[in-house]
Amino acid sequence: MDLLPNSAPLATKLRNTLIQYHSVADSEWRVAKKTKDATVWRKPSEEFCGYLYKAQGVVEDVTNRIVDHIRPGPYRLDWDSLMTTMDIMETFEENCCVMRYTTAGQLWNIIAPREFVDFSYTTSYEDGLLTCGISLDYGEVRPNFVRGFNHPCGWFCVPLKDYPSHSLLTGYIQTELRGMLPQSAVDTAMSSTLANFYSDLKKALKT
Q1: Which of 13, 80, 192, 194 has the fewest C-beta atoms under 10 angstroms from its C-beta?
Q2: Residue 28: its pLDDT value, please?
Q3: What pLDDT score does 194 carry?
Q4: DSSP 111
Q5: How many Å separate Cα 155 from the centre of its chain?
Q6: Where would I find the H helices in the chain?
Q7: How distant, in Å, are the alpha carbons of 14, 44, 72, 80 from that of 201?
Q8: What contacts 24+ positions apart, CB below 8 Å, involve 91-98?
Q9: Which residues on neighbouring strands pair with residue 121, listed in sequence order?
Q10: 29-63 confidence digits (pLDDT tens)
Q11: pLDDT of res. 6
């Protein structure tokens, strides 16, 4: 088990990695799923032998409120249908923490419940915000859970220039679920999870 990292250099490296993903040319992405709320693309990850997913959609709300619903805090557990528990384990600064959360089983429990321990960082980006994270090897694994690992991931949220009450939300996710899983099941679950994330978030913001 690792010790907690120094938060400042990790936050800087994480932010730079996400900005690098955000600049990847459109031609490198392949569409994985389209819904009325979002489009999901994927490309081979450079971090592990799976995929880096990109999701994008317009959300009818202001940037700060959207990010408050996504980052670790009181809102996320209320609306995210995949997340079953969330605890803030350590807080470094107001915008920087380590959280532990668990997810429900997926695909009729072919994918068993997972546990993650993530370093989370929220910062400004252009006219909006970036909230990002990466998993840490920290803390004991709870019984009946498989410890998954999030390689650098995050959400960019910026106001639309002509409609500042609407925001463009773009996410980059590369989750290593671990355990003995067929890759096709992982791909199906990731694409559906990201599409559902947008519809669940939109419902939550309307309440």
Answers
A1: 13
A2: 97
A3: 93
A4: B
A5: 7
A6: 7-22, 63-70, 76-79, 183-206
A7: 24, 27, 14, 7
A8: 92/7, 93/7, 95/121, 95/122, 95/123, 96/7, 96/11, 96/120, 96/121, 96/122, 97/72, 98/4, 98/136, 98/138
A9: 96, 132
A10: 999 999 999 999 999 999 998 999 999 999 999 99
A11: 82
The helix (H) or strand (E) run that includes residue 207 is none
Burial class (CB within 10 angstroms; exposed 0-12, middle 13-18, buried 19+) of 58:
middle
Contact 172, 51 (CB under 8 A): no
| Per-residue model confidence (pLDDT) at position 183 | 77
Residue 106: phi and psi, rounded to 5, are -130, 160
pLDDT for residue 86: 93
Grouping H, G, I as helix, E, B as strand and the rest as coil, residue 175 is: strand
SS3 of residue 193 by DSSP: helix
Structure token digits, residue 106: 């997926």
Amino acid identity of residue 189, one-letter, is A
What amino acid occupies position 182? P
Residues of the chain where predicted confidence (pLDDT) is lower than 70: 1-3, 107-110, 180
